[in-house]
Design brief:
3 helices, globular
Length: 82
C-alpha cells in the first residue's frame, strides 16, 4: 500500500525578514511606485494580505511602527535622492 501526501490547501506564508522588507521598499521607491515620505503601512498594498501579520511582527521586532516613514527603512537611499 502506498500513500501520497497532498499539498497544503493554501501555500504557507513566506517569512519576510527586515532585509527583505527594506529591499522591497527600496525597489518600490526606485520605481516611483511609493515615496519615501509615505508611511510604511502603504507597503501592505504590495504584500499579500495573509502575510501582512508576519510583516507587522517583523517590523515591530526591529523597532519600526506602521506610521513611520518608508525613509526610516532605507534612510541612506531616500536622503541621497534629494
Amino acid at each position: 500500500m502506498t500513500t501520497t501526501t497532498m499539498p497544503p490547501a493554501s501555500p504557507t506564508p513566506k517569512h519576510f525578514s527586515i532585509e527583505m522588507l527594506k529591499d522591497e521598499a527600496r525597489q518600490l521607491v526606485e520605481s516611483g511606485t511609493v515615496d519615501c515620505c509615505q508611511p510604511i503601512y502603504v507597503l501592505c498594498q504590495f504584500i499579500p494580505a495573509r502575510e501582512w501579520v508576519c510583516v507587522e511582527c517583523e517590523l515591530e521586532r526591529n523597532g519600526f511602527l506602521l506610521r513611520d516613514q518608508i525613509a526610516d527603512l532605507n534612510p541612506a537611499q531616500c536622503w541621497s535622492d534629494d
